[in-house]
Every structure is written in C-alpha cells, then in structure tokens.
Design goal:
Blueprint (H helix, E strand, L loop, with lengths): L2 H16 L16 E3 L10 E4 L21 E7 L2 E2 L28 E3 L12 E7 L10
Antiparallel strand pairs: 1-2, 2-5, 3-4, 3-6
C-alpha cells in the first residue's frame, strides 16, 4: 500500500540529483548578438530588423509560406513597455525546411526579418524588440 508513494518519491529524488549531472540535461549555451533597423522606421510601413548573428545561427527568411513564421527565431515586440500580440495570417498549411531550415533561395539576404509581418506597426511610438534564436541540436552533431 505504501510502495507507490515511496517509489514516486524515490524517482523524484533520482531526477533531482541525477538530471543536473547528465550532459543532455544541461542548459544550452547562450550567445548574445546585436539587432538594429537598417532604415528609418515609419508607422504603417515595412520595417526590417537586422541581426549580427554568428554563422551557426544564420537566419534565412522565409522559413515557410506563412509570412509571419520566422522558424526558430522568436521576435517579441513592446510598445511603450507593453508586450504586443503578434498578427496572424490565414494561410494554407505548409512545411518549412529541414530541421531549423528555411525555404529561402541560396542568394537571399541573411540575418534579417520583416517585423511588419509579425506585428502591426500602426502607431508612432517607442518600440523595443527582443530577438531570440533557438537551435535544435541533433545527437552527435557539434553545438
């Protein structure tokens, strides 16, 4: 009768003690990079953001036929300190590139994303942007 709770407690202790010691349980390294806009930004007009990404994190837009899908790149936008909700587009289901890949032609610009396709930039204001890149590592490949 007491075996199940004891087993559950024992399993929790094993996970708490062993998981931090396992290499596959460690947090991935974090690389910082700078972002900027390349041209003046105006309400209601296209705004592209550019990143100074290391080669291993290169962004190649587009990632799918949905224009607001940025693959493994996550963009968050605040206006006057308030987080904005992303714009959604009605699109047909489509696949993207192979693991973390894109469907961009080889000669397409790199490390830039169209902020105006993810968020409605319809008001003059002060905006702040956070660009996060998440890469999925396949077992046995370099980080």
């Amino acid at each position: 009768m007491f075996r199940v709770p004891i087993l559950a407690i024992g399993l929790m202790l094993v996970l708490l003690v062993v998981a931090p010691l396992c290499p596959w349980a460690q947090a991935p390294p974090v690389a910082e990079f700078k972002i900027h806009i390349t041209e003046p930004a105006y309400a209601g007009l296209p705004v592209w953001i550019q990143a100074e990404l290391p080669q291993i994190l290169t962004a190649r837009y587009p990632y799918a036929t949905d224009p607001s899908w940025f693959g493994t790149n996550k963009i968050e936008l605040k206006r006057d300190g308030q987080l904005l909700a992303p714009t959604s587009f009605p699109t047909a289901p489509s696949g993207g590139g192979i693991l973390d890949g894109s469907i961009a032609p080889p000669n397409s610009p790199q490390n830039r994303l169209p902020l105006h396709l993810k968020y409605a930039l319809d008001q003059p204001s002060t905006y702040s942007v956070r660009w996060t890149v998440v890469r999925h590592q396949v077992s046995g490949t370099p980080g």
